[in-house]
Amino acid sequence: MNILKSLAFVLPMTLGTMALSQTEETNPIIKQRMEVMKSMNGSIGILIKMTKGEMAFDAEEAQAAAANIAETAAEVPALFEAEEMSEKSRALPAIWQNYEDFSNKADALRVAAETAATQIDAHDDLGPAVSNIGGACTACHKVNRAER
Amino acid sequence: MSRLFIGLIVLCALAGVGWTVSAGRPMPESDVAGLTGDPVAGETIFTAAGCASCHMAPGAEGEAQRVLSGGQKFPSDFGTFIAPNISPDPDHGIGGWDLADLAGALTRGVSPEGEHYYPAFPYTAYTHMELQDIADLKAYLDTLPASDAPSQPHQVGFPFNIRRAMFGWNLLYLSDHWVLPVGDDPKLERGRYLVEALAHCGECHTPRTALGGMDTDRWMAGAPDPSGKGKVPNITPAALDWGESDIVFFLETGFTPNFDAAGGHMVDVINNMAKLSAEDRAAVAAYIAALPPVASAP
């Protein structure tokens, strides 16, 4: 009876911790990387939704979204300087095997996003901006991010 | 004694028959007689078939992707295959090949000398290619820069290094039947040609049998990544809930409906798909959406 009671008490706690460990990244630098990627995801989302017509086109908002991608892309090389990996992290060793190439790829994204930030004036400018930014994202993901 | 002697003769005869039968048969010249290739149309075939994705040098970017010098490694359960030089160099590439040689390689998996290729080269998909498309492809390949980089031997151990064994494998897995019946819908037919023949999507997205053939009962239901890390996703409607327009957008930009950007080998596929016409991307999406749902392996 006592065993059952303690089980009833301990089991949810254990499960809770397990669930937490699956959703939470504890390494602060990896956590920061994930937040930066999430921020870029939000910004490109704005551009894509405007492209598809799911969101009204607003030049200022689109430019701000592109500028945010450029700013966060500039932070990427420093965030990945330390060779930190975890179970949740999808960073591949390739990053540190050729860190210069990785940094160049992050810079290519910064350039593409900066260009977009100055060139998006009309809805028709969104397509090329999304393509160029997407090309820079995928060029890096191709070699440096693990598939799920 | 005489029994042993007769037994030996029978064994030798069987081995001889086996040796003769298992040889690869190049395509006869007469099969492609009268065909002339258009290099402009050939570039589209080249792009859709993803030739450069595997045959360009490892890590090649930009213009260097047009030099098909080979050298990329493809690990598998059977060993590591290394893509050969298929540039127009007459000695180290395939510059000395004629149209029948190329058509035999693509549709039969056989070299001009009658040697079997390994199915890391997706001839089981290319076997569906129209001969006119192969003529166009040949005309385009001939315009690419030559490379004198020697092809490297595959790193494949016994017994998989016996190429004659591919004869038996081909009996099991080389078929001119399409996987998905599409009726006479021209859009789905085009999508099927792009997916099943040219882009050879099933090579990564379909799980394989113990012998390394396509498990067509689980067509496009996802598979372990051959590199050993991660999984290639199930793209049947059982797992992929994207609309056709989502698939088209992904093939054009690399962005999923959640605005995630693709990675891995799919990036090469997207770079190719983005160069195709909007109609072709729509046809691919229609085909994917029409796949029968198959649950992912547990």
From TrEMBL, chain A:
Q: Please list which residues make up the signal peptide.
A: 1-21
Q: Which domain of life is it from?
A: Bacteria
Entry's InterPro entries?
Cyt_c/b562 (IPR010980), Cyt_c_II (IPR002321), Cyt_c_prime (IPR012127)
Q: Which UniProt keywords apply?
A: Electron transport, Heme, Iron, Metal-binding, Signal, Transport
Q: What is this protein called?
A: Cytochrome c
Species this chain originates from: Meridianimarinicoccus marinus
The lineage is:
Bacteria, Pseudomonadati, Pseudomonadota, Alphaproteobacteria, Rhodobacterales
